[in-house]
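[Q] Does anyone have a clean structure-token version of this?
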Amino acid sequence: MKADPRVPRPQEIELKLALPTSDPSSLARRLARTPALARRIATQLHLHNIYYDTPEQLLRQQGIALRLRRIGSDATPSWLQTLKAGGRSNSALSQRGEWEIPVSGEVLSRKALKDTPWSGIDPDGTVFSTLAPVFVTTFERKLWLVRRRDASVIEVALDIGQIVAGASSSPICELELELKAGRPAALFDLAQEIAQSIAVLPVNVSKAERGYTLAQGSEDAPLHAQPVPLGSDLSLTLTAQRVLSEMFYQFTTNLNALRSSDDPELVHQARVGWRRFKSARRLFRPVLGIDTMPQWEALQPLLTCLGRLRDLDVAGMVTLPPVADAYTAGDPQRERSWQAMTLSLAQATEIQRRTVRYALQEPAVGAGLLATSQWLEGLAESSVTSSAKPDSKVSLRHWVRRRIERLHEQLESACAQDCSPEQQHRIRILAKKMRYGVEALHSQLPKKRAQRWQRQAGSLQASIGISRDLMQAAMLVAELEVDRGLAEFLRGLAAGQQS
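[A] Here you go.
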């Protein structure tokens, strides 16, 4: 199924922001008071949307969304049929085709799809005949139209409501900035003005995508690293942009899911995404130039909270359970001490989880994430002119091999030195960088060598990580101020493992 390339493609360009707030009811008032929206008249709409697909979800597979939208009350509704196509990316900024046609009622119209890509997707009407509702979204939308001095026009939409798929539901609390005229950079400029006082979180998941995952019971599932297609003809700048965007997407997607899910794997994958991003940023620094990179000081409190939560999760679920019997050894007193420690650790973990959610509600965090999103978009634009740069004449495959080989040499050199705790920590960091680099750029490396390097880095990271996790657990247990002998026992285990 392919869209007809001859059909004109109306473009919808928008920036999507989740709003990590504990008080959605006050958002409209707070937004209206921001300098960007103050003294502008807002419009209120009640929207009810029904999304359709085939039983096999053929539209979803093609990156297409088809919906009927009811605007207004049940007594005096108006209906719009909308087809959206393309635009799937790792960015909160989406650019996709959108065809919107008024229809007479709550029935899909094949005729309304005439001047859209549908004819290339479904020439004989077979697909249309199998369409059925999959999920619905219902929300209150508050609209502001912002005309800026640079002649850009932006529609700001605050949506608060819910997605419903069968017996499951999920809240909607988000801000959409749609470009009506001007350059996409104007969306980020306005978003940054809003982010000075309202906490935001850049997301690239549409309501339609959320509806599908809700229907299949996979909403808020942890997002792991994804392969990035890299052709050997790509410029170094565009390669960096694609690799970094995927890693930043992993970070922000798991952060967003953390707002409502207690799954410890979300914390793990958020931190993996950020470490991968930092590692790749260093790898591509000669290409990007350090002066062009945004600052991330505003994110540090959040990153520290995530690290603390991950340490608590690992101690409670991974490190401590296997050594419980070795400590208690059937002694009733020791068993009571262990149970008291376990309870205290669980309470500390829950408090830290709430602390992470509070950190996400800090406006400075959203502003920092927005700055990174805008920087990544700028890299894609700058890659168009990268042919004028000297580094663009370097073969991508040659450049990647040279950079990864240098990392491997550093790792080998570190392994050949003493095995002090400080040196083991350095080896573990280098092993992570090595593994992340090979995983992201494996298509540009010799296959066997890449596999060998990845195994080596993974083995080093895992073996050193065991002793590090034991020592970290001992420190956490000591902080809980439970049985002192228990903490000493764990320190002894860690020391033995380290040696």
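[Q] Thanks! Anything notable?
[A] The radius of gyration is 26 Å.
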